[in-house]
Amino acid sequence: MATIFTVNKPRKFHRESYFHDERKERLEARVRKVKREMGLLPDEEYKPEETIRGSFSTGTTHLRRRLESDAENGTDKSKRYVKLAVWCIVLCIVFYLLITGKL
Known about the structure:
- About 60% of the residues lie in helices and about 0% in strands.
- By secondary structure, it is mainly α.
- It contains five helices and no strands.
- The longest helix has 24 residues, at about 75-100.
- It has helices at about 20-40, 50, 55-60, 60-75, 75-100.
- The chain is flat and about 80 Å long.
């Protein structure tokens, strides 16, 4: 009879993000490293995921070449997307002008 009056608690919502901010992680790692060098934090134990991250792109020749060329040219992925978007807008305007006959 006691089970009729008890209410089960709902499960807690726990969502793990599929996307992560690499810049934020690198910044946090730098801050931890500086604090550790200053003696504010104790030494951490070895974490293999920090050394594994990015090792695939440096291990393959075509991705390594692309990273090196990006570093030499000073290009970034976000700049590439902006450039692509600008070109798409320009092409759309040209096609619109061709279709309407104003060009």
